[in-house]
C-alpha cells in the first residue's frame, strides 16, 4: 500500500498543520470559556495577523535573495511579532466594538453571534479592498531545505519552525492559564463570572485580555500559515472552521483540549486527505465536527476552562 | 454607620423587586434579613454587592454612595459576599477557591488560610479536592471561608443553611458567631428564622420587596407575626388575614 | 466609545423656566472637553478616518497601504473629520439638551404615541404597499427591473424564509444559501438534459420541481439540524456555516455539477394547461410578478403560522426554553421544523432563480448567506414586513449606489450595518412588536429572546 509508505510523511505534515489549528483554536476556546460564545470573527483576527506579519516580513526582505542565518531568524521573529500585535489589536477592537456594547446591555446571545458576523463581513471585505482579492504569497524567509529524516519522512525547515513556534506558544499559554494571576481570573470568570466579580475580579478587563491573548496567538499563527501557504482576504474562513472543530473536538473551553483537538484534526485530515481526494480535504474537518457533535458533544477532554489546570 | 440602604428600589425590567428598602448595618453587628421566597432578600444582597444597580435610592458604605464603584472593587472596601447556592468554582481545588477570596490582596494569604482551616478543619482535609466534588456542607464552609479570606468588615451571607443537615447548620451558625466575634459585621439572609434570630442583634422582615418589620432580634423572636409566618408556630387565630401591612419605615416594635 | 455612548454623564437638572441657566456653558465644556468627551472626540475622529478609508480608493497586495494612504492624504479627509466632529458634538450634547428637546416635542410625541396605539387598519396599509409594489417596476428602466428581480424580490423571499429561523425560532443559520443551491441544482437536474452533466430520467416542467426542491431542502435541513439542534443553539451556526461551504465545494469540484462553469440552459418557467401556453422569457417583469405573488403568499402563510399554536410555541421557546419544555412543548422538533421551513423556502427560491438565469457555484458563496442574514437583521427579525422592507431598502440602496460602490465592496457596508444595528437597534427598522418586547425584557434580565441559552454575563461591567 502506498499509504503505508506515506504514513510518516503524512504524520509530519499533519502535525504541522495540526499545531497551527491548535494555536488558532485556543482563541475560540478562551473566548468561549469566558463568554460562552463562539467568536465568529476570530478567523478575521487570524487573517489580519497574517497580512500584518506578511507585509512586515516582506518589507524586511525587499524582494531580494532568500536570506540565511541570523537574518532569517530576525525576519521570522519580526513577522511573528508584527502578526501577533496586529492580531491582538484586531481582537481588542473587535471586543470593544462588536461585543462590549452588547454585553453592557445584557443582549441575548443571538445578538452577539450576529454582531460578530457583521464584524467578520466588514473586516474580510475591507481587507479585500485594501490588500487586493488575489492570493498573496510571501517570499521565502529562509532556505526551506530538509533538516532531518524521521522514519523516512523528511522534515524541512519550515515544518520545524512552525512546529517549534507553535509548541512554544502552546506551552506558554498553558502555563499562563494554570499558574498566573491572570490565568486564575480567566478560569474564575469561565466557571462563574458573577462570583468572580464578588471576589474582586474585573470581568471586563479579563474579557479584553482574553481576546487579546487569543488575538496574539491567532496573529502569530496567521504569519506561520502565510509563510507556508498563501494569504488572501478570505483565508481566515477555512482554518477558522477547522480550528473551531479542533476546539470542539478537544472540548470547547478547555485549553489542553484545544491543543489535543488541533493536533488530532491535523493528523486525521492529513491521512484522510491522502486516502480520499485532496480536493475534498476540507470536508473532513466538517465531518469530524458533525460526528463529534453527535457522539461526544462535550469533546474528548470535556468542556471547562478550569479543568486544564 | 457601616452600611446603609436608603429607599432602595430595584427593578428587573418592568418588575419591581425592591421598593424603598431602608436598612442599616453597624460595625460589628449581626443583622438578619428574613422573608419568604421571592421577598427580595437575595436581590438586596446583590444590590449591596453592586451586581444589581438600584433604580432609585442609594447604598451607602461608610456614608459614601456606592453607585460609582464597580462591583469588583467592593471587596477592597471590605465587603465580602457568600452568595446564594454557594457558587463554588467547581473546577478549582479547595485551596484555589480560597485563594480566589484573597484575589485582590495576597499579603496575608498563608496566615488567612490557617485561620480558615482552624474554623473549618474539614476544608484542610480536602484542600486539593475539586470544589465541585464537595458535599453541600463542605461547599458552604468553603464559600464562607472564601469570603473571609478577604478580611472583610462586612460579610454578606445568603442562606448559608440551605439544604444542609441540622448538625452542619449548627456548625455553620457557630462559625458565623465566631467570625462576628472578631469584629466582622454580618448581614445574614435566612429562611431559618429561629437560628438566625438567635445569633443576630437585629433583624428585618422583607415581604414583596418591602421592609414590613424591623427590630432587635429578641423582640422579633417574640413577635406573633414572625413566629407564625417564619417560625411555623401556631399562635392562635391571626388578627385578620388581611391585616393592613405595617407601613414602610414605621416603627412597630 | 461604548462607555460614553451608552452611559452618558448624568443629565443635568432640568433647566427651570424657559431661560437657560448660566451654568449651561460649564456643562457644555464639561460634556465636550471632559475626559469622556475628549475620548469620544478621539473615537469620532477615528470613525471619520475609517469612513474615509472605507469609501476611499482600494489597493492591491503589492502596495497594500496605498489605498489607505491615498484615502487619508486626499483633501476629502477634511469632510470626514468634520463629520466626526459633528458626530462628537451631537453625541455629547444630545443627552444634555434632551430634556429640553423632549419638552419641545411633547405635543408631537403624544400624537405619535397615540397613533401607534391606535389599531390602524393594517389591511389598508398593506394594500397600499402592494399597489406600490405592483406599480413601481413600470416606472423603472431595464437595469433597475432586472435588479428588482435578481437582487430584491429573490432576496426578499429568501429573507422571509430565514426570518423563520432567526426571527421565529431564535437560531442562526449561516449556510442558508446552501439550500438555495440545492433548489437550483435540482432544477437543473430535473428540467434539462444538458444544463449540468447529469439529468433525471424524466424531464419535468420547472413548476413540478418546486415541490421537489421544497422537500429536498427540507430533508437536507432535517439531516443537518437534527444532530446539531440537540446541542447548544450556537453550534447550529457553525455547522451550517461549514455546510454552506461544503455545498459550494461540491458544486465546484464535482463533475456532475459542471464544476465552476455552472449550469447553462435551464428552461424558463412555462405553463401549458388546457391549451393555455405561457412562457416566462428574458423579460424580468413576469418573473417579478410571479415572485411578488410568492412573497405575498409566503407573508400571509407565515402570518398564520406566527399566530398558530406553532408560532406561540416558538415564542415560548425563545422566551424560556426550559419552561416551554416543561409545559410540554416539543422544543427540539419545533426548532427543527423552523429550520426545515427556512430551508425549504430557500430551496424554493433556488428553483425560481435557476429557471430565470444562469448560475454557477459562485452564486452560492458564503457571502450570499451573510447577505440574507444582514437583510433580516436590518429589517427586523421576526417581522415579515420588516424583512421585506429591509431588503428593498438595503438592496435598493446598493443598486442606486452601484456606480459609487463596487459590488465587491458592498459587503463592507453591510457588515457595518449589521454591527450598528446590533449595537443601537437590535430589533430592526420595522420591528415585530413581540420581538421588540422580548429583547427589551431579556436585556432587563427577564426571559430570553433567542433559543441559545442565557445571555453572556453583564455582571461586573461597570455601570
From TrEMBL, chain A:
Cross-referenced CDD domains: TM_PBP1_LivH_like (cd06582)
GO CC terms, sorted: plasma membrane
Transmembrane regions listed in the UniProt entry: 20-38, 45-61, 73-94, 106-127, 147-173, 206-227, 283-301
Intracellular or extracellular location(s): Cell membrane
Pfam families named among the record's database cross-references: BPD_transp_2
Record keywords: Amino-acid transport, Cell inner membrane, Cell membrane, Membrane, Transmembrane, Transmembrane helix, Transport
UniProt GO MF annotations: L-isoleucine transmembrane transporter activity; L-leucine transmembrane transporter activity; L-phenylalanine transmembrane transporter activity; L-valine transmembrane transporter activity
Membrane topology designation: Multi-pass membrane protein
Family as reported in the entry's similarity comment: Belongs to the binding-protein-dependent transport system permease family. LivHM subfamily.
Record protein name field: Branched-chain amino acid ABC transporter permease
Originating organism: Frankia nepalensis
From TrEMBL, chain B:
Protein name stated in the entry: ABC transporter ATP-binding protein
CDD domains, sorted: ABC_TM1139_LivF_branched (cd03224)
Region (Disordered): 233-253
Gene Ontology MF: a single term: ATP binding
Keywords linked to the UniProt accession: Amino-acid transport, ATP-binding, Nucleotide-binding, Transport
GO annotation, biological process: L-amino acid transport
Gene3D superfamilies: P-loop containing nucleotide triphosphate hydrolases
Domain ABC transporter: 3-233
Superkingdom classification of source: Bacteria
Family matches, as Pfam families: ABC_tran
Similarity annotation: Belongs to the ABC transporter superfamily.
Amino acid at each position: 500500500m502506498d499509504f503505508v509508505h506515506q504514513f510518516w510523511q503524512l504524520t509530519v505534515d499533519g502535525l504541522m498543520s495540526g499545531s497551527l489549528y491548535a494555536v488558532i483554536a485556543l482563541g475560540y476556546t478562551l473566548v468561549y470559556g469566558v463568554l460562552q460564545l463562539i467568536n465568529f470573527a476570530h478567523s478575521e483576527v487570524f487573517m489580519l495577523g497574517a497580512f500584518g506579519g506578511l507585509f512586515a516580513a516582506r518589507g524586511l526582505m525587499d524582494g531580494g535573495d532568500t536570506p540565511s542565518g541570523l537574518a532569517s531568524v530576525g525576519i521570522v521573529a519580526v513577522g511573528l511579532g508584527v502578526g501577533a500585535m496586529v492580531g491582538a489589536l484586531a481582537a481588542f477592537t473587535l471586543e470593544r466594538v462588536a461585543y462590549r456594547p452588547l454585553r453592557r446591555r445584557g443582549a441575548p446571545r443571538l445578538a452577539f453571534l450576529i454582531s460578530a458576523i457583521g464584524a467578520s463581513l466588514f473586516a474580510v471585505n475591507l481587507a479585500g479592498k485594501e490588500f487586493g482579492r488575489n492570493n498573496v504569497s510571501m517570499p521565502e524567509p529562509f532556505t526551506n531545505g530538509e533538516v532531518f529524516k524521521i522514519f523516512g519522512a523528511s522534515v524541512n525547515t519550515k515544518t520545524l519552525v512552525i512546529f517549534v513556534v507553535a509548541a512554544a506558544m502552546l506551552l506558554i499559554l498553558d502555563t499562563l492559564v494554570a499558574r498566573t494571576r491572570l490565568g486564575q481570573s480567566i478560569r474564575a470568570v469561565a466557571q462563574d463570572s458573577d462570583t468572580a466579580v464578588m471576589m474582586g475580579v474585573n470581568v471586563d478587563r479579563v474579557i479584553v485580555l482574553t481576546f487579546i491573548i487569543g488575538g496574539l496567538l491567532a496573529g502569530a499563527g496567521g504569519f506561520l500559515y502565510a509563510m507556508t501557504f498563501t494569504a488572501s482576504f478570505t483565508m481566515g474562513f477555512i482554518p477558522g472552521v477547522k480550528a473551531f472543530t479542533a476546539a470542539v473536538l478537544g472540548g470547547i473551553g478547555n485549553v489542553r483540549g484545544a491543543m489535543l483537538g488541533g493536533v488530532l484534526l491535523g493528523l486525521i485530515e492529513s491521512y484522510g486527505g491522502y486516502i480520499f481526494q485532496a480536493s475534498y480535504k476540507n470536508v473532513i474537518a466538517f465531518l469530524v465536527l458533525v460526528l463529534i457533535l453527535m457522539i461526544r458533544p462535550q469533546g474528548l477532554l470535556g468542556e471547562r476552562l478550569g479543568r486544564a489546570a | 454607620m457601616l452600611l446603609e440602604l436608603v429607599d432602595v428600589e430595584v427593578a428587573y425590567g418592568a418588575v419591581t423587586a425592591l421598593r424603598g428598602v431602608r436598612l442599616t448595618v453597624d460595625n460589628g453587628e449581626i443583622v438578619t434579613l428574613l422573608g419568604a421566597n421571592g421577598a427580595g432578600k437575595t436581590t438586596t444582597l446583590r444590590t449591596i454587592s453592586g451586581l444589581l444597580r438600584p433604580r432609585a435610592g442609594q447604598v451607602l458604605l461608610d456614608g459614601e454612595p456606592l453607585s460609582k464603584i464597580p462591583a469588583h472593587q467592593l471587596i477592597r472596601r471590605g465587603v465580602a459576599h457568600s452568595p446564594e447556592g454557594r457558587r463554588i468554582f467547581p473546577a478549582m481545588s479547595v485551596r484555589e477557591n480560597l485563594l480566589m477570596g484573597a484575589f485582590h490582596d495576597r499579603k496575608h494569604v498563608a496566615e488567612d488560610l490557617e485561620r480558615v482551616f482552624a474554623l473549618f478543619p474539614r476544608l484542610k482535609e480536602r484542600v486539593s479536592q475539586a470544589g465541585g466534588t464537595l458535599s453541600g456542607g463542605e461547599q458552604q464552609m468553603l464559600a464562607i471561608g472564601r469570603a473571609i479570606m478577604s478580611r472583610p468588615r462586612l460579610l454578606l451571607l445568603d442562606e448559608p443553611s440551605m439544604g444542609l443537615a441540622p448538625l452542619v447548620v449548627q456548625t455553620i451558625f457557630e462559625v458565623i458567631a465566631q467570625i462576628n466575634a472578631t469584629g466582622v459585621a454580618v448581614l445574614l439572609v435566612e429562611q431559618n428564622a429561629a437560628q438566625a434570630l438567635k445569633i443576630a442583634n437585629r433583624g428585618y422582615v422583607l415581604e414583596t420587596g418591602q421592609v414590613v418589620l424591623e427590630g432587635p432580634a429578641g423582640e422579633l423572636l417574640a413577635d406573633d407575626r414572625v413566629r407564625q409566618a417564619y417560625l411555623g408556630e401556631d399562635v392562635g387565630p391571626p388578627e385578620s388575614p388581611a391585616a393592613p401591612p405595617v407601613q414602610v419605615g414605621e416603627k412597630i416594635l | 466609545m461604548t462607555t460614553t455612548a451608552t452611559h452618558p454623564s448624568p443629565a443635568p437638572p432640568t433647566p427651570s423656566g424657559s431661560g437657560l441657566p448660566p451654568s449651561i456653558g460649564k456643562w457644555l465644556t464639561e460634556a465636550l472637553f471632559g475626559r469622556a468627551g475628549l475620548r469620544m472626540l478621539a473615537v469620532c475622529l477615528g470613525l471619520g478616518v475609517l469612513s474615509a478609508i472605507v469609501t476611499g480608493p482600494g489597493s492591491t497586495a503589492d502596495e497594500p497601504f496605498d489605498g489607505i494612504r491615498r484615502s487619508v492624504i486626499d483633501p476629502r479627509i477634511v469632510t470626514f473629520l468634520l463629520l466626526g466632529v459633528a458626530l462628537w458634538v451631537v453625541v455629547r450634547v444630545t443627552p444634555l439638551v434632551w430634556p429640553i428637546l423632549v419638552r419641545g416635542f411633547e405635543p408631537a410625541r403624544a400624537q405619535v404615541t397615540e397613533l401607534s396605539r391606535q389599531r390602524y387598519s393594517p389591511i389598508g396599509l398593506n394594500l397600499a404597499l402592494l399597489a406600490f409594489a405592483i406599480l413601481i417596476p413600470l416606472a423603472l428602466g431595464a437595469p433597475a427591473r432586472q435588479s428588482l428581480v435578481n437582487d430584491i424580490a429573490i432576496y426578499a423571499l429568501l429573507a422571509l424564509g430565514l426570518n423563520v429561523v432567526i426571527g421565529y425560532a431564535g437560531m442562526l443559520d449561516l449556510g442558508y444559501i446552501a439550500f438555495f443551491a440545492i433548489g437550483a441544482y435540482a432544477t437543473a437536474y430535473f428540467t434539462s438534459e444538458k444544463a449540468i452533466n447529469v439529468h433525471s430520467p424524466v424531464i419535468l416542467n420547472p413548476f413540478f420541481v418546486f415541490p421537489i426542491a421544497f422537500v429536498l431542502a427540507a430533508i437536507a435541513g432535517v439531516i443537518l439540524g437534527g444532530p446539531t439542534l440537540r446541542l447548544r443553539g450556537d453550534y447550529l451556526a457553525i455547522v451550517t456555516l461549514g455546510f454552506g461551504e461544503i455545498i459550494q465545494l461540491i458544486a465546484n469540484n464535482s463533475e456532475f455539477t459542471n464544476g465552476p462553469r455552472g449550469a447553462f440552459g435551464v428552461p424558463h418557467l412555462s405553463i401549458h394547461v388546457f391549451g393555455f401556453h405561457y412562457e416566462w422569457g428574458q423579460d424580468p417583469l413576469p418573473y417579478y410578478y410571479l415572485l411578488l405573488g410568492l412573497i405575498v403568499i409566503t407573508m400571509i402563510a407565515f402570518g398564520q403560522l406566527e399566530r398558530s399554536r406553532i408560532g406561540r410555541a416558538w415564542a415560548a421557546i425563545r422566551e424560556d426554553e426550559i419552561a416551554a419544555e416543561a409545559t410540554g412543548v416539543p422544543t427540539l422538533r419545533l426548532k427543527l421544523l423552523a429550520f426545515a421551513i427556512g430551508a425549504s423556502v430557500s430551496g424554493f427560491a433556488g428553483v425560481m432563480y435557476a429557471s430565470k438565469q444562469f448560475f454557477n457555484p459562485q452564486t452560492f458563496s458564503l457571502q450570499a448567506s451573510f447577505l440574507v442574514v444582514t437583510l433580516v437583521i436590518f429589517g427586523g427579525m421576526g417581522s415579515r414586513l420588516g424583512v421585506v422592507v429591509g431588503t428593498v431598502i438595503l438592496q435598493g440602496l446598493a443598486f442606486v449606489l452601484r456606480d459609487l460602490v463596487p459590488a465587491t465592496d458592498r459587503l463592507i457596508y453591510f457588515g457595518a450595518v449589521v454591527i450598528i444595528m446590533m449595537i443601537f437597534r437590535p430589533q430592526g427598522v420595522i420591528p415585530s412588536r413581540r420581538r421588540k418586547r422580548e429583547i427589551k425584557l431579556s436585556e432587563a434580565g427577564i426571559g430570553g429572546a433567542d433559543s441559545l441559552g442565557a445571555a453572556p454575563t453583564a455582571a461586573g461591567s461597570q455601570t
